[in-house]
Design goal:
584 residues, alpha+beta, Butyryl-Coa Dehydrogenase, subunit A, domain 1, Butyryl-CoA Dehydrogenase, subunit A, domain 2, Butyryl-CoA Dehydrogenase, subunit A, domain 3, 4-stranded mixed β-sheet, 4-stranded antiparallel β-sheet, 10 strands, binds flavin-adenine dinucleotide
């Protein structure tokens, strides 16, 4: 039953951001022309990143043995030390704190290099840099940063992010760990348990989420607050250093317990009671970097499957001759291209100053993890029996990539997050439209502006691209987006406030939005490549064909999903589940 479902975090729109983000506009049926140009780093930053990645690749090949890490369930200390010496562990820390001061895009490129070599090492890096010290970087005071960042930057100390608890997974607001304030000593006493905390057994700094009493102005309420915690604090205990698990076995998943752990009030990150905002902001960055962690293995899979399909013969011909195998190969190439395009599109936009990217980050996360999972499935089919054996890397890749669909927000919850936050913007807009229409003569311009939105749903504006080679795809993109906008309206019209209970339709809206956003990123990338090649298609090679294939594949899926809205089978399926549960 979904009737009593708790709300997914619907985040208030930051009204300092005047224009809705690219992903939010999709729910209005609009493609923001700002999808072009494809955001790219400056030449200087690119050269610096390429050089860094070159050294990193050499290090990974020489020192990281993914099979051994998997077998031993441990990343050797010399690997972590070596990555620290390279500067990787403080890559995004500003130079004045001893880091390399590089961009999100550069960090994603480095993460991609690591993920091509080893899933565990990539997960270690993400837990440390994408989320472990991100709150300190974004919300820390100058004193907090001065105290911690220099040692983090060198890799001397590793960071970790502790939100999840035995009773708290997807519902971050339900944190049970409690921080009691002692005004006399100006400290908090934190009591509670955390579980599955990556790097938890050896991290020397944690971002810990705990509830605190907060005077909200309407009485004292319990709100989540973020704290910096170190393992030397009295009351900090590691109850299980490393739980045995089947994927990313090299990273330590740790259980922690805090027994009236004394934490100075100066260790609060951000404002008291605003820990949820801290956590969600950190996770927004983390989710983009998950895309980079998928881009690495995705490219490896394309490389391996294409070679194998050409070499392996059955029925006196190469596998690549068979239509069913061809379908798999083109899908693999297109998905790998799309993971790359959407990850760097989004990271690049953030580097270029986009402030609200929570939907975009969730889209990157859901799309890239699901696409990689599909790619591994298809790769294993192409390799047949060989894929089952441990001398091939596919079973390890499969095990290592599986957690991606659960960590940092399970994909189901992410889909609800995407659709509810997107649809909410439309709901707010519709209310404003009705109000301004009532006072028509006072706000004629506003009314005209508002109604443009509806006009665009039926007569979508053209998307101006540089290259004429992509006009057909651009048109299909704007039409499919308008279809999404109309579907959102239909949903609001039919369900009104009950929409929150219609999870299957909410998921459909999200999936369609994901397909559309990723297609926009892919088109933007290709358009920019064509512009750089002065539209000389022969310089682009197969990428243009891959782009065109992906656009058709992805937009067709979006339209099919939207056609399935209001499927009566949803209700039948829910009733069956209810009866089966009641019968237990
Ligand atoms: C390898 C690994 C490493 C991790 N590292 C960390 C870490 O470093 N720090 C940290 O804090 N956490 C970490 N986690 C925890 C991770 O973030 C959580 O697993 C994740 O947030 C999901 O929570 P859960 O597993 O408790 O799933 P639950 O919340 O129990 O949900 C289970 C499933 O129920 C469904 N579901 C839940 N809610 C809804 C809903 N509202 N509507 C519809 N369906 C729903 C979804 O399908 C979901 O997958 C890690 C987990 C793993 C597996």
């Amino acid at each position: 039953m979904t009737e009593n479902m708790p709300p997914i975090d619907v985040v208030p729109q930051d009204h300092n951001t005047p224009i809705l983000s690219i992903a939010k506009q999709l729910f209005f049926g609009r493609i923001d022309p700002a999808i072009t140009p494809y955001p790219r780093p400056s030449l200087e930053e690119k050269e610096r990143t390429d050089l860094f990645c070159h050294k990193l690749r050499q290090f990974c090949e020489a020192h990281i043995d993914p099979q051994e890490i998997d077998r031993e369930s441990k990343i050797p200390a010399n690997v972590i030390e070596g990555l620290g010496k390279l500067g990787l562990l403080g890559m995004t820390i500003p130079q004045n704190y001893g880091g390399l001061g590089m961009s999100l895009t550069a960090y994603c490129k480095a993460l991609e290099v690591v993920s091509q070599r080893c899933g565990s090492t990539s997960a270690f890096l993400t837990a440390h840099q994408s989320i472990g010290f991100k709150a300190l970087l974004l919300f820390g005071t100058p004193e907090q940063k001065e105290k911690w960042l220099p040692r983090i930057a060198t890799g001397e100390i590793v960071a970790s992010f502790a939100l999840t608890e035995p009773n708290v997974g997807s519902d971050a607001n339900a944190v049970e760990t409690f921080a009691e304030y002692d005004a006399a000593k100006n400290v908090f006493y934190i009591t509670g348990k955390k579980q599955w905390i990556t790097n938890g057994s050896f991290a020397k700094i944690f971002t810990v989420m705990a509830k605190t009493d907060v005077d909200t102005g309407q009485g004292v309420k319990q709100r989540v607050t973020a704290f910096i915690v170190t393992p030397d604090m009295p009351g900090f205990k590691i109850t299980t250093p490393a739980l045995d698990k089947f994927g990313i076995r090299g990273v330590q998943s740790t259980s922690l317990e805090f027994d009236r752990m004394e934490v100075p009030a100066e260790n609060i990150l951000g404002k008291i009671g605003e820990g949820l905002k801290v956590a969600l902001t950190v996770l927004n960055y983390g989710r983009i970097t998950i895309g980079a962690g998928c881009a690495g293995p995705a490219k490896i899979l394309v490389d391996h499957t294409f070679k194998y399909a050409r070499e392996r013969h059955q029925f006196n011909q190469p596998l690549s001759n068979f239509g069913l195998v061809k379908n798999k190969l083109s899908t693999l190439a297109a998905l790998a291209y799309a993971i790359d395009a959407v990850t760097y599109f989004t990271a690049g936009k953030v580097d270029h100053g986009q402030k609200d990217f929570m939907l975009e980050a969730a889209i990157v996360k859901v799309f890239s993890t699901e696409a990689l999972w599909k790619m591994i499935f298809e790769t294993m089919q192409i390799f047949g029996g060989k894929a089952m054996f441990n001398d091939k890397p596919y079973q390890l890749l499969m095990r290592d990539c599986r957690p991606g669909m659960i960590v940092e927000g399970s994909n189901e919850v992410m889909n609800l997050f995407i659709s509810m936050n997107g649809i909410k913007e439309v709901g707010v807009h519709l209310k404003q439209m009705l109000q301004s229409t009532k006072s028509f003569w006072e706000s004629k311009d506003q009314v005209r502006e508002n109604w443009k939105y509806l006009f665009n749903l039926f007569w979508p504006s053209n998307l101006e691209l540089y290259s004429p080679s992509l006009q057909k795809e651009a048109k299909s993109l704007t039409q499919t987006t308008a279809f999404l906008g109309k579907s959102v309206l239909k949903l609001l019209w039919r369900y009104g406030d009950l929409l929150v209970q219609k999870q299957q339709d909410l998921e459909r809206i999200s999936l369609a939005a994901i397909h559309i956003y990723v297609t926009a990123a892919v088109l933007s990338k290709m358009d920019s490549d064509l512009e750089r090649a002065h539209d000389k298609i022969d310089l682009i090679g197969c990428d243009l064909e891959t782009t065109k294939f992906f656009c058709r594949y992805s937009l067709k899926k979006a339209r099919q999903i939207l056609k399935d809205l209001f499927d009566p089978l949803d209700q039948v399926s829910e009733s069956l589940a209810d009866h089966l549960i009641a019968d237990l």
